[in-house]
Design goal:
The complex is a heterodimer of chains A (606) and B (199). With 606 residues, chain A is mainly alpha-helical. Chain A has a single domain, classed as Cytochrome c oxidase-like, subunit I domain (Cytochrome C Oxidase, Chain A), CATH 1.20.210. In chain A, 59% of the residues lie in helices and 2% in strands. In chain A, helix 9 packs across helix 15. The two termini of chain A are 47 Å apart. By secondary structure, chain B is mainly alpha-helical. Chain B has a single domain, classed as Four Helix Bundle (Hemerythrin (Met), subunit A), CATH 1.20.120. The longest helix of chain B is centred in the middle third of the chain and has 31 residues. The radius of gyration of chain B is 20 Å and the shape is elongated. The chains are: A mainly alpha (606), B mainly alpha (199). At the A-B interface, helix 7 and helix 8 of A face helix 1 and helix 5 of B.
Chain lengths: 606, 199
């Protein structure tokens, strides 16, 4: 960055600084803001769903009376209709995945961490980066605009399977909620691809002097590999969405079979299951898009607060790469019940179970990192520990459903719902919380209030488990995944109490999240001023000023060692930042600091 | 903050940012079209007759003409890069202009093809051919959009070359060239798949 640029940057009008900014930190904050907003929208939708399941036929308290009495609620009663219930399910899933977890994990952490952690001033292509954010709000509005169409929001589930999503029963060129959903997800996909292309370029080209690929923190590694998945996976979904859009809007029949009994005219010849293949070819890797970045974040948080090097750093990198590769060859396990050659089913079952190997390597190494560490239970660390423990539970139930014979029994039940929330909420979201608590000082220059942070963690952790663990029981009891009224089925009547318990816990869980928002806002105003390196961590972002401006660093950065040299023998401090000069030798894979004057040969005897 | 920092040093890989990003983007584009080709293969296997009739209705001579136009424009694009790298602004402009003409010519031929199909009721929503012609309009349509997408920066560079400083970024033209060759290459896959292979 030249002097002229710096002089120029102070003259930027406010909207270039805060709205259409090309600064990666501002873009990260924008992603954080929009994701937090959608987190509460998606969460509110979930609570509507829970209310209906626990108290079917009871008006929604307070809000029910103000909902329009068209297709949304039964006229004059405040009870949601089955149509609206299906729409709520669809929108809850779509919003949480495309507008909360992916923008948080990839958008926020990718933007904030990559340039700072590799010691550079900004992304490789800052303007492209700005556009990758500014496609998200319009996409969100387009999806939410479904409410104002004749038939309401999209209602075919977040997976949006045809024929339901392809046949609207409306004339050609009619926009329905489903049409808007398709456009919206296409835009979000395009935004992801632009971001990912930028991340790949930045990591390859803009690393600080002396930083080799294997000197990068695991967060950057995870985001880099995630970016590769996004680059290769997302366009396939885009292709599928384009075809489904044509089916939906122009009445082609890529995914509509012959001999479908329907009220409106249509042309067959297509295959609905084909869409499932295309969809899951992206959406299974997307599961890893949603969790790999957080695995990186959690690794960094754990090493810092255990004051120990990551156990098996390279194994961690290869495990991430292994998960990413395997993620592309397992999509069929979502379709064991869709009709599949049993031989193919077995293949998908085996490749899916193999994913347990790199996942276990990661869990083992996290435990190895904690082992005999000097653990500091900060809010960030607590959330990271929750990530690991919840990921173990979610991972183990994952092995159940990876096995085709078991999956055939539990397919489309609440067991699956429990699993997905254990990995996506218990895993990803707790990882996101850990990252927010960890990097907040660098993001806003203020310390986040620890005491409120811990309260938020404990309340979330307890209510999370109370909400989602009983869902395993519901699922094995046969509770189907997307039903409107469980009381219709005799065999579910006995589970009404469990449903009610889950709903009460879910409401508590939802309100616990207000603590996070309160804490973020309160600390912004009243928080203690953050020092440069509050956690005494090694990675490069802590070399930057407490609240870095445009250009990030105020000193030249040269990298001398890997990111996890904590508690090195022969040093007074228990950390050794990457940017600090100093000699060390490795004895039995153990780094030992060597005073500048000493002759290293004296250690040679070992 | 100090202004003497030099954090944005030479690219680590010695390859320009734009070029790496373009290669990554092209990988993404390849997967995008793979999605279409994948479904094309599957549905072609189950709709043999429809695809047979459909392929016979297509005007392969026009498509062949388009193939030559597009390959030609790839060549002129490469020549444009060659001359800009040697600061030969006049020739750069000529060859870039030829490339734009090629792209434009491609779209004109496409227009004649599309309008003929429209007149013969060969578009999605007709009983007989709907699956094949859905693919026809989907794949050629997205390809044509890519052609238009390439033309926009070309026209910008073309008019920039008339200014006093000419167009000063050979590497950006090279990156655009990568994209243009990809568009060409995609056509070389789409052309036989739709027009030439009769079931």
């Amino acid at each position: 960055m030249s002097t002229a640029d710096h002089a120029h940057h102070h003259e930027l009008p406010w909207y270039r600084k805060y709205v259409f900014s090309t600064d990666h930190k501002v873009i990260a904050k924008q992603f954080m803001l929009s994701s937090l907003f959608f987190l509460f929208v998606g969460g509110a939708f979930a609570l509507f769903i829970r209310w209906q399941l626990a108290y079917p036929g009871t008006p929604i308290p307070v809000i029910g009376s103000i909902l329009p009495a068209t297709w949304v609620t039964e006229p004059g009663s405040g009870i949601i209709t089955p149509e609206f219930y299906a729409q709520l399910l669809t929108m809850h899933g779509s919003i949480m995945i495309f507008f909360v977890i992916i923008p948080f994990a990839v958008g926020m952490f990718g933007n904030f961490c990559i340039p700072l952690m590799i010691g550079t001033d900004d992304m490789a292509l800052p303007r492209l980066n700005m556009w990758s954010f500014w496609l998200v709000p319009p996409a969100g509005l387009i999806m939410m605009a479904g409410f104002f169409t004749e038939t309401g929001y999209a209602a075919a589930g977040w997976t949006s399977y045809p024929p339901l999503s392809a046949m609207t029963g409306l004339p050609t060129f009619t926009i329905s909620g489903q049409t808007l959903w398709l456009i919206s997800v296409f835009l979000v996909g395009f935004s992801s691809i632009m971001g990912a292309v930028n991340y790949v370029t930045t990591v390859l080209n803009k690393r600080a002097k002396g930083m080799k690929l294997f000197d990068m923190p695991l967060t950057v590694w995870a985001l880099f590999i995630t970016a590769i998945i996004v680059t290769l996976g997302t366009p396939v979904l885009a292709a599928g969405l384009a075809m489904l859009f044509m089916d939906n809007f122009l009445h082609t029949s890529f995914f509509l079979p012959d001999n479908l009994v329907t009220s409106s005219k249509y042309f067959g010849g297509g295959q609905p299951v084909l869409f499932q293949h295309v969809f899951w070819f992206y959406s299974h890797p997307a599961v890893y898009i949603m969790i790999l970045p957080l695995m990186g974040v959690v690794s960094d948080v754990m090493a810092t607060f255990s004051r120990k090097p990551i156990y098996g750093y390279k194994a961690m990198v290869f495990a991430i790469a292994g998960i990413a590769f395997l993620g592309f060859i397992v999509w069929g396990h979502h379709m064991f019940q869709s009709g599949m050659n049993p031989l193919l089913g077995t293949t998908f079952m085996l490749s899916t179970i193999v994913i347990a190997v790199p996942s276990s390597i990661k869990v083992f190494n996290w435990l190895g990192t904690l082992w005999r560490g000097n653990i500091k239970f900060t809010a960030a660390m607590l959330n990271a520990l929750a990530f690991v423990s919840m990921f173990i539970i979610g991972g183990l139930s994952g092995v159940f459903m990876a096995s085709a014979p078991v999956d055939i029994y539990i397919h489309d039940t609440y067991f699956i719902v429990a699993h997905i929330h254990y990995v996506l909420f218990g895993g990803s979201l707790f990882g996101i919380f850990a990252g927010i608590y960890y990097w907040y000082p660098k993001m806003f220059g203020k310390m986040l209030n620890e005491s409120w942070g811990r309260k938020h963690f404990y309340w979330s952790f307890v209510t999370f488990n109370l909400t989602f663990f009983p869902m395993h029981i519901l699922g094995v009891g046969g509770h189907m995944r997307r039903i409107y009224d469980p009381n219709v089925y005799d065999f579910l009547k006995g589970l009404g109490g469990v449903n009610e318990f889950v709903t009460i816990s879910a409401i508590a869980l939802g309100f616990s999240q207000l603590v996070l928002v309160f804490n973020v806002l309160w600390s912004l105003k009243f928080g203690k001023k953050a020092p440069r390196n509050p956690w005494r961590a090694n990675t490069l972002e802590w070399a930057a000023p407490a609240h870095p401006g445009h250009g990030n660093f105020d000193t030249d950065i040269t990298v001398y060692r890997g990111p996890y040299e904590y508690s090195v023998d022969g040093r007074e401090l228990d950390y050794w930042p990457q940017w600090e000069e100093g000699k060390s030798i490795s004895i039995h894979h153990h780094t030992v600091a060597v005073p500048e004057s000493n002759d290293t040969r004296t250690f040679g005897a070992h | 903050m100090s202004s003497a920092l030099n954090l944005s040093h030479e690219p680590v890989t010695k390859v320009k940012h734009g070029k790496i990003a373009m290669w990554a983007f092209l990988a993404s584009e390849l997967m995008f079209f793979s999605g279409f080709f994948g479904t094309f293969i599957v549905l072609r296997n189950t709709n043999y007759e429809v695809f047979k009739h459909g392929a016979h209705e297509l005007a392969w001579p026009l498509a062949l003409l388009n193939t030559f136009i597009l390959i030609g424009s790839s060549l002129t694009m490469a020549m444009a890069i060659y001359h800009l790298e040697r600061h030969n602004n006049g020739k750069f402009r000529t060859y870039l202009g030829l490339t734009i003409l090629g792209a434009f010519g491609f779209l004109i031929v496409k227009y004649f093809e599309y309008s003929a199909k429209w007149q013969h009721h060969l578009f999605p929503g007709q009983d007989e051919h709907t699956v094949f012609f859905s693919f026809y309009f989907l794949m050629t349509g997205f390809h044509a959009m890519h052609v238009v997408g390439g033309m926009i920066p070309m026209v910008y560079m073309f008019f920039k070359s008339y200014t006093k400083s000419a167009y000063p970024h050979p590497s950006k033209v090279e990156t655009l060239g990568l994209y243009w060759h990809f568009v060409d290459l995609m056509w070389i896959f789409i052309f036989p798949a739709l027009y030439l292979i009769f079931p």
